[in-house]
Amino acid sequence: MANRVYLELAKQAGDNEREYEWGMACELWLEAASKAPESSTDRYWALLRSDFCRSRGREHSMCFIPETFDQREEKREALRGLSRLNYLKDN
Questions:
Q1: Global model pTM greater than 0.90
Q2: How many domains would you assign to the chain?
Q3: Percent of the chain's residues with pLDDT above 90
Q4: How far is CA 72 from CA 41, 51, 77, 90, in A?
């Protein structure tokens, strides 16, 4: 079960997404990911949402600090983690 801090940050991030505030949503999702348990679905989801918001911001010509190596690695780990969770769920 997710903790309150994660849930509040995720709610704020979602609210910002609905308002097309991609930069703020990106940052809030990253912060939410840092509050979620390691290797949890919530952490993976928040990392992927952050990446989505960063991409949407770029599509709308917003200026973002370039993605760091660590952020790229976290995104890859999030994708691998979700794949593992889906595999375990299906088997």
A1: no
A2: 1
A3: 41
A4: 18, 9, 9, 27
